[in-house]
Every structure is written in C-alpha cells, then in structure tokens.
C-alpha cells in the first residue's frame, strides 16, 4: 500500500521514508494539498497532509471521489480541516496530538530574546563590519513579568524557562496547571495579564472562541514596551491591528512564527515574487519585529515524534484501532 504525503520538507523526507520502510510504501511530495494538487491523490486510500494543507469541503470531496478514505495530518493543529464534511464523506482523520513541547517553548524564547537583544540587527551590522552598539540595548528578563496565555504542555515548558530566568509568572487558561502553580504562577484574568506583563506569549489553540484573542483592544491594553510572541497559530492575533500599534511606535519587540494568512506563503520560496499581502509586507519592515516561517516545531526530536505518530495512525487505521489522535473515526 502506497501512502501519499503532501507538503513534505526536505529534512522530513528521509525520516518519513525510513519510518515507513517495511510497513508501507510512501511517496513524498513537496507540494501542498489543495484544489490544484488533490487530483494527484486519486487511487490512494491513505494520504498524509501538513498543517498548511487546504482540507476544506471542496478538497475533501475531491479526495473522497478519488478513493481516499484516510487522512493522517502531521501536526497537532487541525483548524484547516472541515471535520464535519470529512465525517459526512466517511473519511477517517487523525492528527499528531502530542510531540515535544520543548521545541515550541524553546523557540518562543528564542524569538523573545532575539527581539529583546536586537540579535538580527546586530548580526546584520557586523556582517557589514559595523560594530556600533547604538540602538542595540535590551533589558534583563530577571525580575520582570511573563504572561503565559495557555498553560498546557508548551505553556508549562515556557513557564519553566521563565522561572529559570527569575521572572514573575502570570497565567491565563480555562483550567489551572498544578505544575505552573508550583512554579509560582498566579492565574489572573486576560485583561490583568496583558496590562501587567513585560513579555506575553501565546500557547492556545485556534478555535472560534480564540480567533483574534489578541485584538485591537487587547493590544492597546499592553505596556508600550511589552514584548509579544506568538508561536501557536496566526489567527490568534489581529495582524492589521498589530500593524497599527507598531506604526504608533509601540512595543519593544514582536516575535511571530505564525501569521494568520500564511497559507500559500510559508514553507515556500517567494523571494523572486512580489508579495501581494500588504499586511505581511508592512509587518516585516518594522525593525522591532521578527517573523519566521512556522518553524517552532522543527527540531529533530519533534519531527521524529510526528513521523512515528503518523505511522502509528496509519497502522491503527488498517488494523481498525482507535487512539486519542483520531479526530474522525473510521465508519
């Protein structure tokens, strides 16, 4: 049985091929799954998708009509999949419900420290043999306040690092994490967290209730010199409103590994093309903003877990087993 995997990164391909060897054949494509590429899946009972795949109603119907019966998504997030349509079409859908939380938490800290200590600007200068320190002054994290929105496994890992820096911890979530409480975290309202935090990091899923969790009002309530980091989902922040605040000269730094309109941009080489997204084009021009292309999860440890779990999901499908990774069970 050949599995067709869409949106496979160059570093990921040998890991997938090695994991599936002896179990199933796998054909890896670097192109993303969408309406244009869905016809390639004809005749493949099982396909694997990436987080930026378009698995809306039209694509799902195309897959189902071509013989696909199972979708194994290689990510935790699944907001790109119309689960109701998948269930109606009899498609089994599974995801990777867990992988190394340290990969994302550590990268969130990388973004925070990079914008705080002006690392990109400093590196660019020294490559031009400009060794001045003007405009490179940062701040100690020790003694300042970290606000963690979402204190699950990733938020907890971020909080442990913040605790190591000697920071005061504020948290916001639907339920308290005892491990975070043991670190000294105080759970407060979102409004208080935003108003008091020097560093704000987002680690919540993208749901209808969290769409634009950080909207214009939330941004205005933050300290003028706050640092904002998002390594979760782009739709959590109203990017247009963020640009307005940045134009007003607010925030010490903003680190974004995700962007709400990243589909069709991130993971692709657009260096020789004009970027039609005016909001993104404006965003990357601010000297206190660092944008990366959804790479927080991209460590050898995390990708190994993702690949192994994807293989397990495929094997479970053929064996008729159901695990916590299944979003739409086999009918």
Automatic annotation (TrEMBL):
Q: By its UniProt entry, which InterPro entries does this protein fall under?
A: D-isomer_2_OHA_DH_cat_dom, D-isomer_DH_CS, D-isomer_DH_CS1, D-isomer_DH_NAD-bd, D-LDH-like, NAD(P)-bd_dom_sf
PROSITE patterns for the chain: D_2_HYDROXYACID_DH_1 (PS00065), D_2_HYDROXYACID_DH_3 (PS00671)
Keyword Nucleus found: no
User: Record keywords: Oxidoreductase included?
Assistant: yes
Molecular function per GO = D-lactate dehydrogenase (NAD+) activity
* D-isomer specific 2-hydroxyacid dehydrogenase catalytic domain ranges (all copies): 8-327
Gene3D superfamilies, A to Z: NAD(P)-binding Rossmann-like Domain
Q: Its Enzyme Commission number? A: 1.1.1.28
User: Per UniProt, which keywords does this protein have?
Assistant: NAD, Oxidoreductase
Q: What class of enzyme is it?
A: oxidoreductase
- What name is this protein filed under? 2-hydroxyacid dehydrogenase
Source species: Streptomyces thermocoprophilus
